Amino acid sequence: MTVAPTDFREAHQRVWALIESGLESNSSWREKFVDYGLLATVGFDQPFDGDDDKVGELAEQLNLSADVVVGELRYFIRQNCLWSTDELVADMDRALKVLVTNGSPEEVVDCLLDFSPYAKRPDVLRALRTAATKRDDAEAFQSILSEFEQ
User: Fold this and answer.
1) Under a CB-based contact definition with an 8 Å cutoff, are residues 22 and 73 in contact?
2) Domain match, 94 and 139 both
3) What is the pLDDT of residues 56-67, one digit of tens each?
């Protein structure tokens, strides 16, 4: 049985209750949601879809369609899991690791700078440059970052 369209409020409450319960009790869920929040924060609007493992797990547990679960997850993430610029600067190594799985180095740099308030861009660039030097693809990032120094 799936929830009828008139029961969206109930679906919303059921999905959110399960998400919150899962986040409280499961560290791998917390990590995944932090990653999803990062992707949503910097502009990767579609970090997952109906084929995602967590979506399938939630849809099955709640007996809801994957579309309803995806919509609720995206809404939950936008409301609860977004990063600040200071958090991004402090954890840039992790941010790069997550972001490069969803975009090219150029897309990652563009998204990070588009997200960053103008006054914080020097901090973001400095953290990005430091984190990028530790990566195997450091040259790709350095060439992109050198454009901003000119």
Assistant:
1) no
2) yes
3) 888 888 788 888
